Write the structure tokens for this entry.
Amino acid sequence: MTFHPDTLCPFCGLGCGDIGIDRGEAGISARPTGCPQADRLFHRSAPVPTDGRMGGTPLSIDDAIAKAAQLLGASRAPLIAGLAADVNGVLAALTLAERIGATVDHERSDALFRNLAVLRRFGWSVTTLAELRNRCDLVLVAGPDPAAAFPRLWERWVAPEPAFVPGGARSIIFLGGDPLPETVQCLGGRIETSGLSGEAGQDLTTLVGRLRTALAGRAAQNEPMTALAARLRAARYAVVAWAAGLFDGPQPDMIVEGLVRLVRSVDGTTRCAGLPLAGADNLIGANQACGWRTGFPLRTGFEGGAPLHDPERFAWQTRLRDADVTLWISAFRPALPSFTTGGSVIMLAPPEMTVMPEPALFIPVGTPGIDHAGDVFRTDGVVALHADALIDRGLASVADVIGRILAALDRPTADKEAAGC
Amino acid sequence: MLTKLTGGRLFDPANGRHGEVADLWLHDDRIVADPGPGATPEAVHDVTGRVVMAGAIDIHSHIAGGKVNLARLLMGEEHELHRFAGHACGSGIATPSTHTTGARYIEMGFTAAFEPAMLGSDARHAHLEMSDIPYIDTGGYLVLGNDDFLLDLIATNAGQAAVNDYVAWMLTATQSLAVKVVNPGGINAFKFNARTLDLDEAGPHYGVTPRTVLTTLARAVNELGLPHPLHVHGCNLGVPGNIATTLDTIQAASGLPMHMTHIQFHSYDTAGDRKFSSGAAALAEAINRTPTLSVDIGQVMFGQTVTASADTMAQRHTAPLAHPRKWLAMDIECDAGCGVVPFRYRDNSYVNALQWAIGLELFLLLDDPWRVFLTTDHPNGAPFTFYPELIRLLMDRDYRLAKLAEIHPDAPAHTTLGSLTREYSLTEIAIMTRAAPARILGLADRGHLAPGASADVTVYSDLPDRRAMFERPDFVFKGGRLVVRDGKLVAMAQGCTHVVRPGFDDLIERRIARHFDERLGLPIKHFRIRDTEIRHGAGPQLHPCQRRELP
């Protein structure tokens, strides 16, 4: 048994780097972290099947790659989705998408686009996790508790004493959402709530609107939001945190815009910054890579050679209906996506994944930070982290598999530049 | 592969050649001496009468990393308008995608560009992005001077030796080439809600002045023996009257080598009814008499661009002028920050017209081309694709005067530009864009054409229209491979990443590790970028430091 201390977790997007991993003959497991995702997803068995499957029938990886190239090369409307891979895997997927004219999207991009829609039309003022931890004296949590998606958020970034807050006092106010029991346990009596869910007229959109009205000085004195507005204005460094992926109801991007405008009005006189949380399975890294490679966010296609972005039409759930071949990439977790497609599905996923009905092709791939090294971005969009390999189970990375598919597609040699750039 | 370029006029100022006719030999990725009469080159290019220079080097261009990628997101309209087909070509002009960045540079004969504002916390991202830029060499300047760890070292009187060790550790961990300071202490002060911070004003919490931060870092860079002096983006960027701060900053360096960047944005006086005028003459005079100083200009050109900077304090002042009306700001990781503000420079705006004139004035008043560099602070003053137009403005007085007549009519009265007769020569252009950048960055095998140099070579037709000439070289070789012919890309090439690695006493690591654990919530080992992470395992190109003893 070998122990790997301070292992980096690539899963939820918080980038925790303190995981203890035991590795033995039977595989790997994490010492309890308090994070259900890390505990579950770091539990991997060895050995595992390393062959591919075609319609459920085993076939060699070489044959599977040749078949994948054949399907993708002949496709007239390909989709590359899931896109849950390390940065190199995403870049390889983008190269393939450009080669075959596919559109690309990440399985979890809904949360991201609720935020991006606002960033792209308005901008924003935001912060990162270390600033939250050290500078923030007032956390305003808008909507559902982000710990549902980011289990150790409060433990690692809010429970520690802030370095730059005199006296170390920090308030945490939940607006329109209940803290989870684990959050209450972690933060204890510091939690306050406002506009609890379930009461009439207390949906998040309305609450944010009322708070903005109070900040503008137009609310009645007995309006509870007046006091909250005063606290935001009096804070030294307030952070407004939200996990847009957890918002329900129509037009979640309008909630985000309300929050972004709220932050900006407070930040005019004291310091206040937003913390838009989204990012499991390297969602942020996929978007970053797509951004630098194409100039556009995810939900970009390559019809006609040049990149074309369309956040509605190229959302993977929409595109799936028209795609004749879908390359589904899910390297982080053996969790089956819920989708039905009229076309063929080629799946790159961990071998532990049970797929019913069987896709046209299944090619097992390794998980970044477990089977091979890989880069992932943290949810706040700045810090990229390099997760090392822990175990060799004979599984190729997404980048390797796609590289071989590209080679099989008889791609122009790498030292030739296509004209017209 | 052996390649021969015959009969070209070599402009190679580093080796004292100013247009002499000579053959040039390339063997694989190096320039070599004439191998003698028995040699049989596989390729011969007759470049008789044409101008041959080393590949150009841009020492300050925001091409990769967090703020650049955020700027791409914010500039969606630009990307919709400028989409390029072809292998991984992408989109954009002011915020081009990675492949487009490399393509546009190499098409102009540039073979290297350096990202001048790489935050430690964002360094891995910046390197991932730079690895995806083809054709050109890259490298990053590490931003320090607003990071809480350094300010704490200074405030607690940890001593210069500890600062030097920290700087060296950070350079190594982030695979950087140089150190940059941006609004020293000001970005940090903004996090404590200080909206301005002057050179001699004590910042909040630490009580440290920008002057102290600046001189401490300048000493560190000098004592560590880094090739590139401290790269300084000073206080009060863009503020009318900031010429006084800039002159004080020169004085603060007190003889230590210093590179002042995008000085156009730091050369504003307050004469006239509008309280905005040129301070270029005074600044140029100070720079001319201070041989330890080098500068780049940050020239403004007219049109739509975007300003992207780590200087959140300055960007907050610019934000109300955003065009289109949207902007973003970010506080980052007890490290620094970033602000992105789209901007359109208009020739019929008095202020923008004067900014344009001030930049040109500085180019023409600075008398040593070895100490002044051609930059637009891409994309802040203009996209780098404006360089050929800028070169024409410097080389062609008639053209310059014609353009001066087109701008806001009140602007010329507040600059000396109209009276300046100087025209840059080809030799001066070669110094400013090749020999001097290589020298100021310590890249011994770049920026010249002597045997042993990297075979990065650009060949131009000697056209009277200098914009046309520099826009479209006849040949560009990168690492010996012909990649551009008649302005068109014909082959792919990859550059390398340049870094320095000054030594340090590793006792400092214990203190840094504690900072990572207690403040950043990340074990230190996850911060360090390994050689194998650079350019898909190719690793960086190391440049030596000459460590100097503490006095």
